[in-house]
């Protein structure tokens, strides 16, 4: 049974395949889609892949109308976490007694979805029939009469994005790639003048022995960013930077022992994360590495402003730049949001607005109750001739980049004050840390005060906020995320902290996919972790706990 037989007349078509294999079947389907004048506007393929890091992995394609997700998760777990409406199912290799997938497939199947298979046990056929699949002509069709919850309507494909840093530029590009018209509003005269204006940001994954939620989210973001950057020109080409690798030194013997335990699990291939003992690390670095360290071969550094430029260039004619506006406010006018400048005049209008301006977003009334903080970070710029020459980015409690244009970057501080100016005490802190990194008490000593101050947007749980913004005042006694009232058409891409380079592409893709009712690029549970409405529920729980404590 060929999926292409059933996609005519569809706006989008989603195929779920239980075996990606060598990719030949997916490649053939994509080729058939390209050659068919009656193809749907968007084709989505979700396939289970062996020899893959755990989780969902979105693989950007040459054609923006095609989405490929490879899932390194067993079938039942994948279906439980898949947020998609499936039009065609390819079952292959399901030998054995497993029948639990049938109910999950029925939950995800679109009306009249088709099912192909190479082999099914009699118990599996019976389980699928019990869920509404009718077997006919060597395949099956989903014919359940149970009502399907309708997908929300796709809004008019016109949006205003507020903030032209990494978050906002990525949002604009991901929406424009789907045919949206985007007005990008920025208070400054140019993009990337706030936290995204640093000379260098580093990109690397996060590791943990228990593969916890921050680790899984960061891994997904990191790997997607590496692939996404290639579609907009590539690191070291359109994007200023280098995928030179990152060496993360162990802090002490206990930290090194914990790292060895992670390495011993074998869960990370060496190309992703390679533990180097002290002699190996020292040979690579040309400097002492007393406790060894993790080498992230695909990691490196990039100038965030150049990433913003590449993303904006990819938007093409669908992007309108509305820069130099100063502070703005939002007002609801009919079914749309009106963005107003400081004097109250309208400067942009759309049914969909995305707040992507970092911590300054809480100056907008509808976002004022989001628990976002601005953490000061001072980066020190150093003459490269005063430092050891690094083959990789070096980090531990702080980081030091290889030189670019004769300048190396060291930092960054984490300060709770709002001082925008460079100060000697912060520079001393950065220099002391880099001296410890390179085991040289003279490195960077007596350097002139030079660098940059930026303010990171940080949430209490250090995770981004991605999705529709909650209406705190209307929340009442809400207990579940899906029941939290939202500001219609108002979304957030906020709280990227120190990982804006890698968070920006995946979070923008997640939001764009949600707006378009496409399969999400993350497990449903991980997408929920990023929902801005989580703070409504936490505020209620905290309030109940405080009330109980007072009563006691």
UniProtKB/TrEMBL annotation:
Gene3D superfamilies from the UniProt entry: D-Amino Acid Oxidase, subunit A, domain 2 (3.30.9.10), FAD/NAD(P)-binding domain (3.50.50.60)
Key words, A-Z: Cytoplasm, FAD, Flavoprotein, Methyltransferase, Multifunctional enzyme, Oxidoreductase, S-adenosyl-L-methionine, Transferase, tRNA processing
SUPFAM superfamilies: FAD/NAD(P)-binding domain
Gene Ontology terms, MF aspect: tRNA (5-methylaminomethyl-2-thiouridylate)(34)-methyltransferase activity
Class of this enzyme: transferase
Gene Ontology process terms (BP): methylation
Domain of life (superkingdom): Bacteria
EC number: 2.1.1.61
Protein name: FAD-dependent 5-carboxymethylaminomethyl-2-thiouridine(34) oxidoreductase MnmC
Protein species of origin: Massilia jejuensis
Name of the encoding gene: mnmC
């Amino acid at each position: 049974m060929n999926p292409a037989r059933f996609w005519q007349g569809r706006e989008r078509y989603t195929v779920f395949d239980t075996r990606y294999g060598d990719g030949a079947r997916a490649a053939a389907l994509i080729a058939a889609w390209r050659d068919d004048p009656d193809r749907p506007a968007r084709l989505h393929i979700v396939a289970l892949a062996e020899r893959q890091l755990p989780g969902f992995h979105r693989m950007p394609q040459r054609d923006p109308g095609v989405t490929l997700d490879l899932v390194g998760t067993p079938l039942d777990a994948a279906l439980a976490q898949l947020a998609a409406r499936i039009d065609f199912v390819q079952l292959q290799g399901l030998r054995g007694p497993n029948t639990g997938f049938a109910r999950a497939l029925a939950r995800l199947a679109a009306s009249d979805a088709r099912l192909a298979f190479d082999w099914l046990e009699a118990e599996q056929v019976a389980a699928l029939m019990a869920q509404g699949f009718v077997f006919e002509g060597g395949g099956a069709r989903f014919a359940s009469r149970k009502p399907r919850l309708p997908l929300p309507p796709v809004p008019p494909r016109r949006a205003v994005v507020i903030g032209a840093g990494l978050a906002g530029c990525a949002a604009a590009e991901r929406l424009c790639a789907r045919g949206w018209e985007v007005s990008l509003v920025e208070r400054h005269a140019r993009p990337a003048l706030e936290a995204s204006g640093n000379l260098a940001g580093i990109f690397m994954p996060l590791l943990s022995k228990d593969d916890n939620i921050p680790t899984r989210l960061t891994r997904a973001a990191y790997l997607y960013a590496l692939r996404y950057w290639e579609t907009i020109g590539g690191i070291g080409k359109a994007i200023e930077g280098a995928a030179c690798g990152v060496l993360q030194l162990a802090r002490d013997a206990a930290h090194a022992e914990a790292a060895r335990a992670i390495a011993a699990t074998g869960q990370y291939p060496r190309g992703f994360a390679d533990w180097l003992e002290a002699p190996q690390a020292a040979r690579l670095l040309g400097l002492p590495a007393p406790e060894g360290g993790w080498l992230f071969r695909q990691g490196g550094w990039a100038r965030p402003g150049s990433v913003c430029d590449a993303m904006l260039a990819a938007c093409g004619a669908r992007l309108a730049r509305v820069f130099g506006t100063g502070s703005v406010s939002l007002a609801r006018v009919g079914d749309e949001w009106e963005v107003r400048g400081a004097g109250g005049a309208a400067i942009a209008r759309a049914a969909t607005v995305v707040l992507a301006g970092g911590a300054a977003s809480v100056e907008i009334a509808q976002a004022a109750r989001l628990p976002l903080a601005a953490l000061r970070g001072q980066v020190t710029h150093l003459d490269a001739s005063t430092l050891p020459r690094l083959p990789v980015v070096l980090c531990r409690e702080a980081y030091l980049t290889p030189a670019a244009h004769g300048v190396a970057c060291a930092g960054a501080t984490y300060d709770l004050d709002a001082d925008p100016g460079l100060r000697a005490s912060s520079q001393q802190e950065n220099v002391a840390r880099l001296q410890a990194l390179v085991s040289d008490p003279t490195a960077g000593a007596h350097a002139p005060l030079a660098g940059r101050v930026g303010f990171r947007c940080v949430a209490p749980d250090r995770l981004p906020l991605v999705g529709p913004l909650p209406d705190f005042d209307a929340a009442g006694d809400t207990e579940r995320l899906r029941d939290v009232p939202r500001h219609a058409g108002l979304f957030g891409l906020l709280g990227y902290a120190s990982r804006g380079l890698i968070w920006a592409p995946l979070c923008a893709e997640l939001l764009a996919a949600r707006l378009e009712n496409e399969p999400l690029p993350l497990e449903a549970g991980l997408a929920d972790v990023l929902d801005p409405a989580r703070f409504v529920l936490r505020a209620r729980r905290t309030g109940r706990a405080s009330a109980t404590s007072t009563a006691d």
